[in-house]
Specification:
It is built from 13 helices and 15 strands. With 336 residues, it is α/β, with parallel strands linked by helices. The strands form 3 sheets. The protein has a 7-stranded mixed sheet with strand order 12-11-7-10-9-8-15. Helix 4 (78-87) packs parallel to helix 5 (102-114) and helix 8 (170-186) crosses helix 12 (307-326). The longest helix is centred in the C-terminal third of the chain and has 20 residues, at 307-326. It binds nicotinamide-adenine-dinucleotide. Nicotinamide-adenine-dinucleotide binds next to helix 1.
C-alpha cells in the first residue's frame, strides 16, 4: 500500500477531529508530526504517546518527510501556514476560510496552483451524506431544473465575543459554508448578492462590530435563486436544513435528531432536538472530506473542492457584507 506522510497544525476543536479521523480510519496516511502553538505538551503526550509534537509550526514545514499538511489553526494564521506549505512544496488541506482578505486569498490560490500544490478547502458540508444525496438527486435531473434553494443554518448559541471579534464576521466565518453549499447544489455561479444583517440575539455582538442574524439572497447567473437564513442562536439546537425546489419536484433535507422516536400523547406529537453542534452533526462529513483528500494524495484522484471554491465563497461573503453596509444589491463583478 502506498503511504503518505501527513502533518497537522492546530489541534483545537476542528484539528482534533481531523487528527483522530486520520489515526483511526486512514492506514495509508501516516501522521508524522503535529504542531500547536498553545497545546500543553504534557497533555499531548498523554493523549497521543506515539506522535511527534512541536509548538513551532515552522518545524513541521521544514520536515522534508512530510508530504502534506492539514491546517486547522485560527483563520488569521491560515495565510502564513499556506505560504509555508507552498514554499516547502507540501500539499495542503486548509480549514475555511482561506483568509479574511480577498486579495490575499486570490494570491494564495494562484500561488498554490502555479506551484502544483494541491489545495483542498474544508467545505465539509458538501460531504454530509444527506446533502451529498441531494446533490446527486439534483444532478440526475430528478427534480428538473432547479429554481430556488433555501438554506437554514443556525448555530445553537453565540460563540465567545473574543471569537466574534477575530472571526471576520458572520458572513466570512459562518455563512461562508452556506454560500459554498448554494454554489455546490446549484452548480452555477452567483451574479448578485442582497443581504440584510441584524443584531437580534445580543447587543454585545454589535459592540464587537458584527451581526448575529442574516438573511441573504443570491441571484445566480441564469436567474435562479438561493435564500439563506442564518442565526447565531437557535434555542432548540443546531438547525441545518436545505430545501431545493425544481421544475419537476422538491428535495428537503431535515435536521439530524438525537433519536428518531416520535412520541404521541394528549399534549401533542414530540420529537428529540437536533444534534447539538457541528462536531456531532457533521461528523460523517469530516471523515468523508478527509477520505477525498487522502485519496487525492495516494491515488492522484482529483480534489473535489479547492482553493478556487474558497475564493468564490469569499467573494460572496465580501459582497454580502457590502450589501448590508450599503443597503443595496451588490454584483459579484463589483467585488472581483
Ligand atoms: N469546517 C468546519 O466545520 C469548522 C468548524 C470549526 C472551525 N473551523 C475553522 O477551523 C479553524 C480553527 O477553528 P477551531 O474552532 O478549531 O479553533 P480553536 O481555537 O479551537 O483551535 C485552534 C488551535 O490552533 C492553535 N494555534 C493558534 N495559533 C496557532 C499558530 N500560529 N500555530 C500553531 N497553532 C496555533 C491553538 O492553540 C488551538 O489549539 C478556523 O479557521 C475555523 O474557521 C471549521
Amino acid at each position: 500500500m502506498k503511504k503518505i506522510n501527513i502533518a497537522i497544525v492546530g489541534i483545537g476543536r476542528i484539528g482534533k477531529i481531523h487528527l483522530n479521523n486520520m489515526l483511526r480510519y486512514f492506514p495509508e496516511a501516516n501522521v508524522l508530526a503535529v504542531a500547536d502553538l498553545n497545546y500543553p505538551i504534557a497533555d499531548f503526550k498523554k493523549e497521543f504517546p506515539n506522535l511527534s509534537f512541536s509548538s513551532d509550526p515552522a518545524e513541521l514545514f521544514a520536515n522534508k518527510q512530510v508530504d502534506a499538511v492539514v491546517i486547522c489553526t485560527p483563520t488569521s494564521s491560515h495565510a502564513a501556514m499556506i505560504e509555508m506549505a507552498i514554499q516547502s512544496g507540501k500539499h495542503l488541506f486548509c480549514e475555511k476560510p482561506v483568509d479574511l482578505s480577498l486579495q490575499r486569498t486570490k494570491v494564495l490560490v494562484e500561488k498554490a496552483e502555479a506551484a502544483g500544490i494541491k489545495m483542498m478547502l474544508g467545505f465539509n458540508r458538501r460531504f454530509d451524506p444527506d446533502f451529498l444525496t441531494a446533490y446527486k438527486n439534483i444532478r440526475s435531473g430528478r427534480i428538473g431544473d432547479v429554481q430556488v434553494v433555501k438554506i437554514t443554518s443556525r448555530d445553537p448559541g453565540l460563540p465567545p465575543l473574543e471569537y466574534i471579534k477575530n472571526s471576520g464576521g458572520l458572513f466570512m466565518d459562518m455563512a461562508i459554508h452556506d454560500f459554498d453549499m448554494a454554489r455546490y447544489l446549484m452548480g452555477k455561479e452567483v451574479k448578485e448578492v442582497y443581504a440584510k444583517g441584524l443584531v437580534l440575539v445580543d447587543p454585545k455582538v454589535k459592540e464587537a462590530g458584527d451581526i448575529d442574524t442574516a438573511l441573504t439572497n443570491l441571484l445566480f447567473e441564469d436567474g435562479s435563486y438561493a435564500v439563506i437564513d442564518n442565526s447565531r442562536k437557535a434555542v432548540y439546537g443546531y438547525d441545518q436544513r436545505v430545501e431545493v425546489f425544481g421544475s419537476k419536484g422538491m428535495i428537503q433535507v431535515e435536521n439530524n435528531l438525537h433519536n428518531r422516536n416520535v412520541v404521541f400523547d394528549s399534549e401533542g406529537i414530540h420529537q428529540s432536538l437536533p444534534l447539538d453542534f457541528f462536531m456531532d452533526r457533521y461528523a460523517a462529513s469530516y471523515l468523508n472530506e478527509m477520505r477525498y483528500f487522502v485519496d487525492s494524495l495516494v491515488n492522484q484522484a482529483p480534489l473535489p473542492v479547492g482553493g478556487l471554491d474558497g475564493l468564490k465563497a469569499t467573494l460572496i461573503a465580501v459582497a454580502a457584507k457590502k450589501s448590508v453596509e450599503e443597503g443595496r444589491p451588490v454584483l459579484i463583478s463589483e467585488i472581483s
